[in-house]
Structure formats: structure tokens, C-alpha cells
Amino acid sequence: MERKITITALLLGVTAIILGAFGAHALKQHLSSEALITFETGVKYQMYHALFLLFLGLTVAVDEKAKKMVFNAILLGVIFFSGSIYLLATKTITGIDFKPLGIITPIGGTLLIVGWMILLRQMVKRQK
């Protein structure tokens, strides 16, 4: 499980850097300032959680079952949260109104919170 988590973390990190550069350079001429800021929010959260998963994959302080639950929550959270933000922010380029998908953004955010809370519970439990 550790290898899977670590590789996923690295892939999320690499794609966050690529998307960040893409947003800063290629999208700059095509999106409004507000849409760029929205896009950057998706990139930031993706990178934060890539680092989070990297920690998770490398730590021995969390048992396998909890690692799996945290990994699944964080991965789905990033896909839903950042993914929907990318789609919503690029509406003017794609011409597709992804607004109905906007409901998955808070679901993704909730999954990210759940992942953090599972890890918190594990750490508190471990201290006892």
C-alpha cells in the first residue's frame, strides 16, 4: 500500500506543477483573473494533498487499514475538488457549462476533511 500511496502522491505533485505552469502561462491569455485564481486554488489543494499522501506513504505511524481509508478519501477528494474546479474555471475555453458538476466540489472538500480526520484519529489513538 505504501508504494501505491507514494507513487500516487508523486503523480499528483507532478501534475499539480504542470497544471500550475499551464495556468500561469497558457491560460493567462484566455481566462479572467477570477477564473485564474479559481484554477490556482485547485492546483494548490492538489499539491497540498500530494504532500499529505507522500507523508502518509512514508510514515509507519499509521496502520494499513487507516492508510487505505485515508488514501481513498484524499484521492477521491482531490479528483472531485480540484478536478471540478479545473473544469469550472476553464468554461470559457471549453465552451462547456460544467456548473451542474459544481455539487461535487464540496463533496470533494468533505472527503479531504475526512481523510485528515481519519489520520488525526489514528495519531491520537496511537498516543494513548
Annotated CATH topology = Four Helix Bundle (Hemerythrin (Met), subunit A)
The helical percent reads: over 70%
Radius of gyration: 16 Å
Average of pLDDT? 91
The residue ranges in which pLDDT falls below 50 over 5 or more consecutive positions are none
The count of β-strands is 0
Keywords: Membrane, Transmembrane, Transmembrane helix
Subcellular location: Membrane
InterPro entries: DUF423
Family: Belongs to the UPF0382 family.
Describe the structure.
The protein is built from 5 helices and no strands. By secondary structure, it is mainly α. The model has no long low-confidence stretch (mean pLDDT 91). InterPro entries: DUF423. It is found in: Membrane. Belongs to the UPF0382 family.
Concise synopsis of the structure shown:
It is built from 5 helices and no strands.
Secondary structure: elements and pairs:
Blueprint: H1 2-25, H2 33-58, H3 64-89, H4 91-94, H5 104-127
Helix pairs in contact: 1-2, 2-3, 3-5
Protein name: DUF423 domain-containing protein
Transmembrane segments: 45-62, 69-89, 101-120
Pfam families: DUF423
